[in-house]
């Protein structure tokens, strides 16, 4: 898939919240996280969707 994590940061105010940045082919992880049929698989890995904010950035 060619996806790698390049940043993980934990909130100073709430240690249960984190920012994770991935780098990879356009829309690969976005499509996985947004597809209803993959939600149970993602949650089984430990991800909590409640409060998740997904943004996409492109390098120019």
Describe it for me?
By secondary structure, this protein is of the alpha+beta class. Helices cover about 20% and strands about 20% of the residues. It contains two helices and two strands; from the N terminus they run ββαα. The protein has a two-stranded antiparallel sheet with strand order 1-2. Strand 1 (about 5-10) and strand 2 form a beta hairpin. It starts with a strand and ends in a 16-residue tail after the last helix. The model has no long low-confidence stretch (mean pLDDT about 90).
In short:
By secondary structure, the chain is of the alpha+beta class. It has a domain at 24-60. Helices cover 22% and strands 22% of the residues.
Poorly predicted tracts of residues: none
Q: What is the H-and-E element order?
A: EEHH
Strand content: 15-25%
Approximate helicity band: 10-25%
Rg from Cα: 12 Å
Major sheet: order of its strands?
A: 1-2
Strand count = 2
Q: Which geometry do the CA atoms define?
A: globular
Q: Structural class of the helix and strand makeup?
A: alpha+beta
Q: What's the average pLDDT?
A: 90
The major β-sheet equals: 2 strands, antiparallel
Tally of helical segments: 2
Q: Give the CA-CA distance, first to last residue.
A: 21 Å
């Amino acid at each position: 898939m060619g996806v790698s994590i390049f940043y993980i940061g934990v909130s100073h105010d709430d240690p249960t919240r984190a920012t994770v940045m991935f780098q990879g082919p356009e829309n690969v992880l976005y499509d996985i996280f947004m597809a209803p049929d993959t939600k149970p698989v993602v949650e089984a890995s430990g991800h909590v969707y409640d409060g998740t904010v997904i943004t996409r950035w492109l390098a120019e």
